[in-house]
Amino acid sequence: MRRKRKDGGLSKVTGVAYLKDLGDEDYERIKPAKGGTFGYNSRDMRGGQLYPCRLTRYSGALPAELRLMSELAKEVGEALRWSYVQNRWEAQFKKATQTPLPFLLKTRDGGRTPFTTITCNRSWRTAAHVDKGDLMEGFGAMCCLGDFEGCDLVFPRYQTAVRYREGDIILANVANEVHGNTPLLNPDGTKPSTANPPERLVCVLYYEENMDQCETSVEAELEFINSREKGDPIYPKKKKS
Fold this sequence. Notes:
Blueprint: E1 2-4, E2 10-14, H1 24-30, E3 34-41, E4 44-46, E5 49-51, E6 54-55, H2 63-81, H3 86-97, E7 117-122, E8 140-146, E9 149-150, E10 153-155, E11 160-162, E12 170-172, E13 180-181, E14 184-185, E15 200-206, H4 218-227
C-alpha cells in the first residue's frame, strides 16, 4: 500500500503497511506473524543497493540447521518427483542442474534438490495472494508443524480449502493461483488472543527465479556486484558457448 506522510497524506512510496494503519482484522492476523527465508536468495535491488545471490543468514543459526532443512528439501523433492505433476518436477530439476551448487539446497551427500529456497512462516494467516519470484514452470510444495486448528489453504477459484497437518505434503501451483488461509485457531477450535496465538510453522519450498544465472561461486558473485556500473542489467545476457 502507499505509505502515509507525517501530515497524513499519501506518498508515492509503496510498502508493507504499518501496524497502526491496519484495520482490526488485519492487525490480529499480522501482529503475531513472523516470516523469513531459509536457503538462498537471488540478486535483488533494495533501497538502491544491489545484493548478490546469497545464503540467508540469521544470528545464532548453525550449519547443522541448514543441513537438516536440506534433508527436508530432499524428502519433499522426492514427493514432487513421483507425484501427479512429474512434468513440473522435471522442469524445475532441469533448472536446478543449471544452477551453481553454491546457490542450491543440496542433500547430505552433495546431491541436488529441485529447490533453492524455503520460506518459513510462523503463526501467519496469509491474505489472498500469488507467490512472487517462484519459477513459473515449477511447482510449490508445503509442509507444516504445530498444534493448531484452522488455517486451511484456500483456492478461491476452485472454491476449495485444503486441511493439512504434520506429516502431510501439499503440492500446489502457488505462483499462478490465488490462495490464502482461513483463520488460525487454538487446538480446541476457539479463537486465539493476539498476544498468545497457537504456533504453526509452515515451510514453503520452491525454486527462486534467476538462480541459474548466479555466478559460479560466492567470490565471483561479489566480484560481479563490485564491478557492476550503475544502470547495468542485474542479470546480463550470458554469451552462448
